[in-house]
Every structure is written in C-alpha cells, then in structure tokens.
C-alpha cells in the first residue's frame, strides 16, 4: 500500500501544514522532502533550541493516516529520555494508542519540539519530563532473553526476610522459545521443604544453588552485570558464604538481591576468577488472578475418564485440565504418528509415543495440579480380559466418562459401565468430511441410559429421512461425488466439536442447573447433509426409556441362593445337620 498515491490531496495538505509551521516557528528549520527506496514520504528538518541543533526526520508509514508518522534522529544518536534507544523513535504526545486520522505530521513536529525544549528548559539545565507512555510488562521485557518469574506472594516473602542474611537459594531454569526462564523453588538448605512453587515442576530443568540476600533500600545495585562490583559488594558486606562459594567452586552461582520492593537475579557464569555476570529481568505475576468462575473451584475434586486420546479426546482433555479438573484417566491403545498432527492437541515432540503418555505430559504442562492416570489399552480390541476389566474398573470410578472414539464397540463398553455404575456419559463424533458433528450426554435418571439414548438419536435421523453420517472414528473424509475431491475434516472442524463436548462436560461437572436444555445436538459446519448453513444446530429430544443400574435377574435372590448351593454343597449339608 502507498497511501499518498491513493490520497494525493492529503499528501499535499501534509506538506502545506509543515511549511506553514516553518514560517511561524523560528525553531523549525531546513525542511526538505524526499522518498525512500520503499516509497515512504519523509520530511527532514532541524529543531534549534538554546543554540543546539537536532537533525530529525519525519517518516510517514505505509498505513498513514491510520497510524502516526515516526520522528527519529537523522544521525542515529540518543537525544531524549523519551526515546526507543539510540537512533530510535521519539515517544511523543501522539502515539498509536491515542492517534486520530485527522492529526498531522506538523503536530508530531510540534510535539517533538515541546519534548526537547522541556528536557532542556535553560542553558545548562536538564529536567525530567513526565512520561505519559505506560508500557505493559510484555512491552518492557520483549527484548530480554533472561527472565525470572515469581508471583506477588513470593515477592512479599522475600521482602520480609532479615537484612544482610545470605540464605541458600534454589532455582529451576529451562530453555524455551529461545529464552531462559528461571523459577524460584526453595529458600533454605536443599533438604528444606519448598516455601513456594511458582510454576509446575519443569521437565529436565537446570537446577542451580546460590544465595538470596535482602538489602536496605539505600544500597545502590547497578542493573548491568558487573563482576568487580558484585565481588567488592559481597566483600564489603562480609557475605562469607557467597565469597567462599566463589573461591572453592567454579559452578554457576545465582544471586537473588532483594531491595527497593523488588528482586533481581544475577547469575555468575561458570569459571574461576573474573566471571561474566548475567542479569535477569524480573516478571512479577499477580496473586490469585481470577480467570475462572467460582463454580470452577469444585472441579479440582472431580475425576473424568477420557476414552480415546486422538483428535477430539486430546482437545477435550486439554480443556478440562485448563478448567481445573482434578483427575483425568486417559485410555487409548494407539501411537501418535506424524499424520495425526493435523488434528491433535499434541505436537512433533510426541510423535512415536503412546497417545495417553504423550497427552499426560502435555496436560502436566497445562496444569500441574491435574493428576493423570494412563491406561495404554485398546478398549474393545484384542487385549487380555484382565487388562480390559482393570481399565473398565478404573473408568467406572470416575465422576464422568467421555467416549471420544466414535467407535461403536467402544461406545458399547463405555455405555455398559456408565449404566451399571450409574455414571454420566458424554460422547462426541465428527462427521465425515467435517460437515458437522454430534455431541450427546446421558445422565442417570435424567436421560435414557446410553444405549437407549443412542438408539433414539439414530431413530431421530431415520424419522427425518436422514442417513447417519457419524460412527466411524477413522473416516475424516467424505467423497460427495466422483468428479470432486473429498471433503476432509481439519483441525478447525474437530476443534468445534471438541469445544462443545468440553463445554457440555464442564456444565455437568459443576453440578446444579444445566445450561443445556437438550442432551443431544447435531452441529453443522458446512451446507451438507441436514445442515442448511455453517453452525446450523439441531437439538435432539431424548425421552425416558429403560432403567439405569446393573442388569439383574427378576428373581435374583432365589437364583443367587441356588447358584451358591451348587458351588458350595457341603455348606448346605452342614447347615441341614446343624
């Protein structure tokens, strides 16, 4: 986009406004216009103040007037305390956060003069200009590769430590996304219990031992890493433990210096003698930041079995972990292969792993408080009866069962367990070709048992003259006709159905009144089958049918007595003789 070819009248207005400003203001001199190689409009100019001349340029961006021009020094120097580094843009009154299209480049030049003249109010004087630019923590740290993460509660603990008392300090650090991220773990000796856990236990962290020292506010600690200063500083304050460590060990040594209401991490590099010192940027996270409703608090006591850790199951599991569900039982007998990555919560690091193992690791990264129990089992497949029975027993102990396999045999097993143990069941299926999907729930005594509920859904399809499109967990593509390529369900299609299933599960786990008036829904994502448009949704009414609970003979007590007598005839004889 070249704005001035579309808005030549605006370009002429901009030139005119700056020319008028130059006639009125004797501090604005030597205005010259030019085009850069990438066809940006630029005005070079000088601001003169107290005998000093500041060579600047005003550069119009490609998307002007939607965004403001930039004012920068032409000689690449740092001329202001309100500047993005040497040669960088001046931070002026008009910025992207308050810019309006009717503002002009002449206004930017006037703002630059007010900034520079305010910082030098008189010859030989320097003044601080109030900063109207409020940066977020993300803006402040975006160019720093070394970061210390702690929360406000932990910072309060550090601030309350005794002055001048070096204490053993342990941190875990890991390399992720081209950054070193450090997390404090312990204050005290290595065998002392942790005082806090600011983050989950990291996989293969670099654990390092050093010292934490609280200093009075009057102590001046430079932000730059300086070994000579730190060595002199430690010597002057007679911090014997840290000094002795420097003498006898060439290992890296972190120093956490607490003063002026914050904590700063210095890391002395490995080696002897003069060492490099690395300074970490501290990021303080808010305490008890409310990101979930109060109703989610009870989810930590709930357990869910997810049968099928593929495309739908992996996404539902991640949703439930983020919601705070306490325990997830993951059941799947398959491996994660490269082809699975187009529709799965997992990534290349997990290729070759059993799906439940890989998913458990992923969930620990999402929420370390969620306990995961893994069953590497193809439910309904060629497995030993003992293994299958053990898995079903563990599934039956959960508060909710989710079948994410879209496999009829697996559904039969999950439905049998749910019905016998009176546990709710949710199942989800993505229709072939990603044209839509189905989510359904079956709650004890509120909905028909799972098998009856599924029959009613199939009858609903038949009553509407609609062939059933779901039911095959491997069929993600749908061939409409021989002349056109097949429709293929992608990650977005799967994510829609998985998100709806997760929403249904959280609604059920929270208890109380449900927000879903129906227990089954057909959800469209394309104008195919019954769906008139994307997101066309059909609620399906389920009516009472059948009984919840284990199958039992009509005369179970008499039949059981006869069975026991057959197994233990001597017990009956002894009873008769007595």
UniProtKB/TrEMBL annotation:
<dbReference type="InterPro" id="IPR000594">
    <property type="entry name" value="ThiF_NAD_FAD-bd"/>
</dbReference>
<feature type="domain" description="THIF-type NAD/FAD binding fold">
    <location>
        <begin position="299"/>
        <end position="431"/>
    </location>
</feature>
<dbReference type="Pfam" id="PF00899">
    <property type="entry name" value="ThiF"/>
</dbReference>
<dbReference type="GO" id="GO:0008641">
    <property type="term" value="F:ubiquitin-like modifier activating enzyme activity"/>
</dbReference>
<dbReference type="GO" id="GO:0061504">
    <property type="term" value="P:cyclic threonylcarbamoyladenosine biosynthetic process"/>
</dbReference>
<protein>
    <recommendedName>
        <fullName>THIF-type NAD/FAD binding fold domain-containing protein</fullName>
    </recommendedName>
</protein>
<dbReference type="InterPro" id="IPR045886">
    <property type="entry name" value="ThiF/MoeB/HesA"/>
</dbReference>
<dbReference type="InterPro" id="IPR035985">
    <property type="entry name" value="Ubiquitin-activating_enz"/>
</dbReference>
<dbReference type="InterPro" id="IPR016135">
    <property type="entry name" value="UBQ-conjugating_enzyme/RWD"/>
</dbReference>
<dbReference type="GO" id="GO:0061503">
    <property type="term" value="F:tRNA threonylcarbamoyladenosine dehydratase"/>
</dbReference>
């Amino acid at each position: 986009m070249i704005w001035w070819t579309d808005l030549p009248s605006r370009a002429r207005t901009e030139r005119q406004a700056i020319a008028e400003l130059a006639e009125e203001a004797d501090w604005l001199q030597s205005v010259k216009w030019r085009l850069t190689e990438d066809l940006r409009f630029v005005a070079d100019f000088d601001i003169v103040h107290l005998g000093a001349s500041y060579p600047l340029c005003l550069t119009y961006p490609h998307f002007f007037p939607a965004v403001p021009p930039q004012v920068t020094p032409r000689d690449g120097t740092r001329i202001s305390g309100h500047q993005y580094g040497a040669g960088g843009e001046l931070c002026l009154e008009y910025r992207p956060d308050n810019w309006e299209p009717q503002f002009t480049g002449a206004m930017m030049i006037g703002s630059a003069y007010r900034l520079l003249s305010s910082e030098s109010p008189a010859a030989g004087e320097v003044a601080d200009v109030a900063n109207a630019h409020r940066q977020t923590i993300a803006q402040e740290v975006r160019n720093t590769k070394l970061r210390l993460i702690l929360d406000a509660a932990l910072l309060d603990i550090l601030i309350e430590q005794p002055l001048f008392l070096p204490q053993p300090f342990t941190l875990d650090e890991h390399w992720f996304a081209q950054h070193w991220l450090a997390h404090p773990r312990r204050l005290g000796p290595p065998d002392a219990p942790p005082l806090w856990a600011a983050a989950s236990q990291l996989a293969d962290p670099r654990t390092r031992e050093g010292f934490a020292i609280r200093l009075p506010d009057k102590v001046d600690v430079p932000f730059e890493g300086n070994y000579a200063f730190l060595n002199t500083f430690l010597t002057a304050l007679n911090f014997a433990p840290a000094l002795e460590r420097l003498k006898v060990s060439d290992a890296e040594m972190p120093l956490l210096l607490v003063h002026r209401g914050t904590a700063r991490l210095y890391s002395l590099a490995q080696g002897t003698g003069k060492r490099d010192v690395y300074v970490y940027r501290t990021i303080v996270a808010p305490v008890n930041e409310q990101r979930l409703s109060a109703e989610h608090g009870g989810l930590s006591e709930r357990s869910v079995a997810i049968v099928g850790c593929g495309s739908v199951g992996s996404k539902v599991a991640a949703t439930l972990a983020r919601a705070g569900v306490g325990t997830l039982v993951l059941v799947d007998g398959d491996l994660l292969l490269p082809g699975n990555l187009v529709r799965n919560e997992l990534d290349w690091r997990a290729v070759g792993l059993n799906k439940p193992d890989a998913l458990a690791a992923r969930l620990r990264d999402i929420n370390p408080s969620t306990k995961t129990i893994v069953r590497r089992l193809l439910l309904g497949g060629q497995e030993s009866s003992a293994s299958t029975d053990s898995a079903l027993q563990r599934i039956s102990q959960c508060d909710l069962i989710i079948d994410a396999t879209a496999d009829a045999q697996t559904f039969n097993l999950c439905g049998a367990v749910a019905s016998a143990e009176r546990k709710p069941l949710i199942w989800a299926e993505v229709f072939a070709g990603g044209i839509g999907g189905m989510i359904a729930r079956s709650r004890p005594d509120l909905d028909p048992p799972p098998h009856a509920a599924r029959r009613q859904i199939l009858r609903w399809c038949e009553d509407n003259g609609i062939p059933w499109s779901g039911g095959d967990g491997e069929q993600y593509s749908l061939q409409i006709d021989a002349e056109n390529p097949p429709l293929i369900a992608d990650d977005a299609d799967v994510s829609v159905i998985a998100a709806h299933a997760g929403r249904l599960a959280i609604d059920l786990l929270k208890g109380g009144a449900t927000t879903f008036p129906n227990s089954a829904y057909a959800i469209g994502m394309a104008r195919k089958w019954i769906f008139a448009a994307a997101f066309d949704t059909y609620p399906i009414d389920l009516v009472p049918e059948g009984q919840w609970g284990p199958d039992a003979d009509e005369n179970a007590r008499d039949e059981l007595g006869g069975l026991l007598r057959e197994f233990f005839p001597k017990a009956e004889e002894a009873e008769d003789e007595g």
